[in-house]
Design goal:
The structure holds two protein chains of two kinds. By secondary structure, chain A is mostly beta strands. Helices cover 0% and strands 51% of the residues of chain A. In chain A, the strands form two sheets. In chain A, strands 2, 4, 5, 6, 9, 10 and 11 form a seven-stranded mixed beta sheet that branches. In chain A, strands 1-3-8-7 form a four-stranded antiparallel beta sheet, with no helix packed on it. The N and C termini of chain A lie far apart (37 Å). Chain B contains no helices and eleven strands. The chains are: A mainly beta, B mainly beta. At the A-B interface, strand 4, strand 5 and strand 10 of A face strand 5 and strand 10 of B.
Chain lengths: 106, 120
């Protein structure tokens, strides 16, 4: 079975900071990797699909990269509205979400 | 714009069957070559995919839940449904329905979610 890990599990950063989250799969998943944002009390929202493609309407400060087993999600300049938990999700073999990374403002 | 809305009992007794319906508006399930999925989130925890159904009725299920899950689609009502049998407290969660793509890998649009508590 594929396992997904994310690091860090939580982080605090200042407005304007560059924020990077990593996601690792236990086996090669090519680029079958999505990133979601979930704000408190809300449903998740798709931000990045196929590892690096920005979903329509999502601000360009969000980006994703990687393939195989190692993936990166970046917020180029953290904004107050970016406070949320971010999940990676693989779909090489059915669907599996990573454990999430909680992002706070310092 | 496509919208999804979950509905069903908020409280289910242990050992009984949890039943939820997702009503789709702003688009037709039968005219779209999409998968439709269910995802859940226990309080304070992460996301777990439950299963997905194509508009024609073919299904994929999470192996860890497969023995207890049935997902069906009713194109006449523009709805798809989830049944989870023999529930326990561990099934307490917010249940989301979602519109996926031509393959079930990506959840493009989500319902607001509904909390189901399993308790006697």
């Amino acid at each position: 079975d594929i396992q997904m890990t994310q690091s860090p599990s939580s982080l605090s950063a200042s407005v304007g900071d560059r924020v990077t989250i990593t996601c690792q799969a236990s086996q090669d998943i090519s680029n079958y990797l999505n990133w979601y944002q979930q704000k408190p009390g809300k449903a998740p929202k798709l931000l990045i699909y196929d590892a690096s493609n920005l979903e329509t309407g999502v601000p360009s400060r969000f980006s994703g990269s990687g393939s195989g087993t190692d993936f990166t999600f970046t917020i180029s300049s953290l904004q107050p509205e970016d406070i949320a938990t971010y999940y990676c999700q693989q779909y090489d073999n059915l669907l599996l979400f990573g454990p999430g990374t909680k992002v706070d403002i310092k | 714009q496509l919208q999804l809305q979950e509905s069903g009992p908020g409280l289910v007794k242990p050992s009984e069957t949890l039943s939820l319906t997702c009503t789709v508006s702003g688009g037709s399930i039968s005219s779209s070559s999409y998968y439709w999925g269910w995802i859940r989130q226990p309080p304070g925890k992460g996301l777990e995919w439950i299963g997905s159904i194509y508009y024609s009725g073919s299904t994929y299920y999470n192996p860890s839940l497969k023995s207890r899950v049935t997902i069906s689609v009713d194109t006449s009502k523009n709805q798809f449904s989830l049944k989870l049998s023999s529930v326990t407290a561990a099934d307490t969660a917010v249940y989301y329905c979602a519109r996926q793509g031509p393959s079930p890998g990506t959840c493009y649009r989500w319902g607001q979610g509904t909390l189901v508590t399993v308790s006697s």
